[in-house]
User: Fold these one by one.
Assistant:
Number 1:
Amino acid sequence: MHLFFTSGGGRLANQILNLAHLYAWFLENKSPADRLTVIPFWPFVAHFENLKENKLATFPFPAEASLTVRALYKVNQKMPGTFGRKALKTALLLSKRLPITKIHFESTEVLTLDSPLWNQIASKKRVLLSGWPWRNWELFEKYENQIKQLFEPIDKYKNEAELFLQPLKKAYDVVISVMIRQSDYRTFAGGKYFFESQQYVTWLKQIMLENPTLNIGFVIASEEKQDENLFETIYHNVHFAPATQTYNAKGDAHYMVNQVIHSLCDYIISPPSTFTAWASFIGDVPLLVLKDINQSVSLSDCLKNGLYEGRKHPSFKESVQ
């Protein structure tokens, strides 16, 4: 049986979760003849040490990919548009080329050996699977070590992150990464997790007042350009991550460097986001959830694991499912 996952989910971190759950399911249920291909992850394999050679995101690897998959990959590379539209177009080509079963879902499916959906998949030679979200948390936890190994960032990102953090780790008792997520959060979930930069400054001051004996350094990571002057009241304790643009810095590092930095800090502060939940999971870093403009923040309220606990958190689960 060859299972093709063709579309579903959002950007990088959501695609990581899709592949992680599919990979766990594959490890649990595969037979020697089985194959798994995750088309939406093709644009991202180069970011991970143990995936960068697996350009077709096909498992098991290494294994000889079919002529069909290799041909589709070449066509996909030449297609215009975003990776999501490319994945859909590739799936359309695939369905025209081969006799194939199409399955689409929009729910929190859990596939077990006695699931009707599993039976439908297992009985077919080729299956085109799409939808959101694909999850089996029991298998995810069972294969956690293999998943972490699969998504090890490439050395370039790790080296840049470690080089940035090295002097901060020496200068401060505690280093806290802060994700300011603004761009798409103006509309996500009705905008309730969009906070102005000044609000983040207020929260950082609360953390400092709560811990007067600690010398705390903050690393600001943001998708949106930030004005350093807003942080002037805590200026000496604030540093901007390499992929964060400010009025005085280009922020031209890759966004994966920021994610690695999150995973190497002592704490993460963030609104609900799969991006920081994954960093918390990879680095075993406590995560403090920013959920309401009126909340008072405290490091004592951190989630121990932003992924496992985040998916059950009343606010954070809107991002992590």
Number 2:
Amino acid sequence: MSNTIRKPCGEGVHFGTTVGAALRPTGLLATLALAALTAPPARAATYDVGPGQPLAAVGDVPWESLAPGDEVRIHWRAEPYREKLVVAVQATEAQPVVIRGIPNESGELPVLDGQSATTRAALNFWNENRSVIKIGGSNTPDCDQPDCVPSWITLESLDVRSARPPYSFTSSRGGGSYADNAAAIHIEVGRNITIRSCRIHDSGNGLF
């Protein structure tokens, strides 16, 4: 059974928690805290994917080294991107990681299709048979709870589809078939995850 989730522009599905307690620094700690607050943010990278862009394929993006503030812009093309990926980075509210689809002039969304999809060779993560896009733990990049929880990640304006049997995929660890309960987008673990203006369908689960 396939599920479709549509959200109009400006609305989204948000998964978030607030954890922590306020501490009042004094002396040297206060100085260090002030320096951290006033330090300029690291320069973020923008990766443009698609026809006429610097990167031709989704797998050309260095997903294993994404950093807070980075943005991936996947431009529409007539053929689907038959590629899978994992997003495993601890970003921040001030510097989120954004993966944004760029529609064509008619408003058609770029498609990430799980059927016969491939995964970038540098990526290594478990539960590959569960999704087209996974947000959660991985070996490469090195991110696993409790030390690393993917945070402040936004997916928007993407058509993600076809994570279900009998479709199959290929990764650096060989081939495989999707599980019956595979999802277009699988949030294994995360904090402050936003999914906005996406179409997710033709999968065991739309969103899991």
Number 3:
Amino acid sequence: MTDQPTNIPSDGPSASGPGGSGPGGSADAQEGVNDRRVALRVVTMPKDTNQYGTIFGGVILSYIDQAGFVEARRHGNHRWVTASIQRVDFRAPVIVGDIVTLWTRTERIGRTSVTVCVDVEAERWSTGRTTDVTSAHLTMVAVDETGQPVPFAGGSGVKGW
């Protein structure tokens, strides 16, 4: 196994569902790479709001972190930890009652880590319209019980996700 990462080209989010192919028209060499899938759906509640009636940004960041874990685990049943989250810019607020959907796809597989893209959308409770909220890139690292990075066999982990 090489220390060099496998770079996955990205033409933006893929509309293909589970088992489909990512951008480029054919299934990638490593199953599950570049397939955009729902990792998490949440109905927002009043307990998560700020004084303006919108959902705290930190709540959305927590959902992004959880979605990143879900995507990383598709590559193996390991202890996955978040090493980094790149810049997160909120393009639209999330309102109480919105259904928040977090879409994920793997963009890069390394020896001990995966880079995951998480796209966040809010379905407005009042209109049913979907709004892009934010997106983020996370580096998720497979670690052992002492917290040290461990190599993993990319794409050979949990089946049927």
